[in-house]
Amino acid sequence: MLNEETLRRYILEALPGSEVVVRDTTGTGDHFEAHVVSPAFAGKTMVQQHKLVYAPLQPWLASGELHALALKTYSPEQWQKLGPR
To answer: Which domains are present in the chain?
Structure first.
């Protein structure tokens, strides 16, 4: 079964220098949400950003082990514009 830390590690390996928070939304190890702030997202559309996050997770997505991953992605500039949360 997948867990938050495994997904976080794979995303960080693909996007070094990113801030990544992953949460299991159902407790079943197959539905997650991730918030990713990465310099690699600068100048990219949301679709392009999401593709960068999904890329290292393809084996789990293809097998169905990872059934759902809700993403919130931001470049550092986008994140800064959102202000304090």
So the answer is: 4-82 (3.30.300.90)
